[in-house]
């Protein structure tokens, strides 16, 4: 019953937050600020994680292929598909849940406990829409863009690691990388990225918005936002994979 | 004029306001006084629409605030200015942008017109050359003054102040009091102030409502307070003076 109530509250919050902006000029300013904060400030962490994930995946899969009958150049193809289908969208989303999700929950939570949300409401502003909509729009652009960026870097990481480890020649690895590419894997990865960005932003926003009390409660809200966003990402990763890859 | 009739409000089955009725007149500073936890803040939040009472009526110049739709409520809310206890300034915006916010949200004024009005409002609260500072860079007293400047930006008809003196030194407290009183008369605003600062009450109130245990226990002119036979009010006054 408690979970149903929480889910109902979440749906009502979505109804309140999603819609036409009240003042487009204000929305645009907040959107640009949030897009910069979410996108630009996340390049560093996404770059490091993506390169190392690609590098480690290449070594681990190469280790499993050694001695098998599968030609080693296939390594590039397996690493590419693993990166595009799973590592880039899911790991990037999990990292963003920690970085962006925690930030959204604590920002909105602080606004709530310091009465800034009340100030907006008293002025006649739909506070949920004013605060959440620009963040949602920004994350729906920033996270999929970061996922595409991560796809390139993780495959680059694979190339760097095979170059240093010598599991397979770089040219052989690239041959595998270009082999039998199916564009649907990008569609699948971006569908996941859009879904994850929606989940991260809305779950974090609702936790921030429900915060009552002070600094301690803001911290809890932030933690809950990250934990629940991560669970939602993993859950929807499974659902979308089931729906899209086994039609 | 703001009229409250038989307002009842409870949280999780615990009643906080009991049949509260009161009137707050135009161009006057009406004080709501009472001990912490007595229901003052709940009453103010109910008046401005942040909380919905279980029963009762709230009228803003004859307009029923509770039985209208969201869009109609928005129109009344745009006529309300509110000064919060902590200022409630937007952390991510400069002082100038904080004061400009309601204008940018609800008017089609040009940048120059908005800036002129911002400077007028800041000057009115005796603040100059602070436009580009952020709330984290200014003192508590300045935050309250910026809060007042933002509250009067759109020429409100109603001004609500929640404990405007809390956390301020006596000199700044008096400055804020004088400012609220001047603005109330200058713009002919209906001002409602939540406070337990009795010096402010005796200096500037036109009408006082004493809230005790969630009820409007006593209502009258400040000159009648000391001679009142209401024991709870006298106890509260005495406790405030020592």
Distance between the termini of chain B: 34 Å
Computed over alpha carbons, the radius of gyration of chain B is: 18 Å
Across the major sheet of chain B, the strand order is 6-7-8-3-9-10
- Binned strand content of chain B: 25-35%
Oligomer: heterodimer
Helix content of chain B: 25-40%
- Poorly predicted regions of chain A: none
Strand and helix order of chain A? HHHHHHHHH
Helix proportion of residues of chain A, in percent? Answer: over 70%
Low-pLDDT runs of chain B = none
Q: Please compute the radius of gyration of chain A using only Cα atoms.
A: 21 Å
Q: How are helices and strands ordered from N to C of chain B?
A: EEEHEEHEHHHEHEHEEH
Which terms would index this structure?
heterodimer; A: 247 residues; mainly alpha; 9 helices; elongated; B: 242 residues; alpha/beta; six-stranded mixed beta sheet; four-stranded antiparallel beta sheet; 8 helices; globular
Short description:
The complex is a heterodimer of chains A (247) and B (242). Chain A has helices at residues 2-17, 24-39, 43-65, 74-113, 116-123, 127-165, 170-177, 184-209, 215-245.
């Amino acid at each position: 019953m408690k979970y149903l109530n929480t889910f109902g509250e979440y749906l009502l919050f979505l109804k309140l937050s999603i819609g036409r902006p009240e003042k487009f000029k204000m929305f645009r300013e907040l959107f640009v600020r949030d897009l910069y904060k979410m996108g630009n400030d996340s390049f560093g962490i996404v770059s490091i994680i993506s390169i190392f994930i690609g590098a480690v995946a290449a070594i681990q899969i190469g280790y499993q292929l050694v001695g098998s009958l599968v030609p080693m150049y296939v390594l590039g193809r397996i690493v590419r598909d693993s990166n595009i289908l799973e590592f880039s969208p899911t790991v990037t989303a999990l990292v963003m849940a920690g970085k962006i999700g925690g930030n959204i929950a604590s920002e909105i939570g602080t606004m709530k406990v310091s009465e800034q949300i009340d100030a907006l409401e008293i002025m006649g502003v739909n506070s949920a829409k004013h605060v959440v909509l620009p963040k949602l729009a920004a994350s729906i652009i920033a996270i999929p863009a970061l996922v595409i960026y991560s796809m390139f870097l993780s495959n680059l990481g694979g190339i760097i690691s095979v170059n240093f480890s010598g599991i397979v020649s770089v040219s052989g690895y690239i041959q595998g990388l270009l082999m039998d590419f199916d564009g649907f894997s990008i569609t699948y990865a971006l569908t996941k990225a859009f879904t994850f960005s929606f989940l991260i932003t809305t779950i974090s926003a609702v936790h921030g918005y429900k915060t009552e009390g002070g600094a301690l409660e803001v911290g809890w809200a932030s933690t809950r936002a990250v934990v629940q966003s991560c669970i939602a990402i993993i859950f929807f990763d499974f659902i979308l994979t089931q729906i899209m890859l086994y039609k | 004029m703001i009229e409250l009739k038989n307002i009842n409000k409870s949280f999780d089955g615990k009643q906080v306001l009991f049949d509260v009725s009161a009137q707050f007149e135009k161009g006057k500073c009406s004080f709501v006084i009472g001990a912490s936890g007595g229901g003052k803040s709940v009453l103010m939040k109910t008046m401005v629409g942040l909380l919905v009472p279980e029963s009762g009526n709230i009228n803003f110049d004859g307009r029923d605030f509770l039985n209208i739709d969201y869009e109609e409520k928005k129109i009344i809310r745009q006529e309300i200015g509110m000064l919060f206890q902590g200022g409630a300034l937007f952390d991510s915006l400069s002082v100038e942008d904080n004061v400009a916010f309601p204008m940018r949200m609800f008017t089609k004024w040009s940048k120059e017109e908005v800036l002129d009005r911002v400077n007028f409002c800041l000057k009115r609260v005796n603040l100059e050359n602070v436009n580009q500072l952020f709330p984290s860079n200014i003192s508590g007293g300045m935050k309250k003054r910026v809060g007042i400047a933002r509250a009067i930006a759109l020429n409100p008809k109603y001004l609500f102040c929640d404990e405007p003196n809390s956390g301020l030194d006596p000199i700044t407290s008096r400055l804020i009091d004088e400012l609220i009183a001047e603005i109330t008369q200058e713009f002919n605003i209906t001002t409602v102030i939540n406070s337990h600062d009795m010096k402010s009450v005796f200096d500037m109130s036109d009408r006082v409502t004493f809230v005790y245990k969630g009820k409007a226990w006593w209502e009258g002119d400040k000159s009648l307070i000391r001679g009142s036979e209401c024991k709870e009010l006298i106890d509260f006054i005495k406790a405030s003076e020592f």
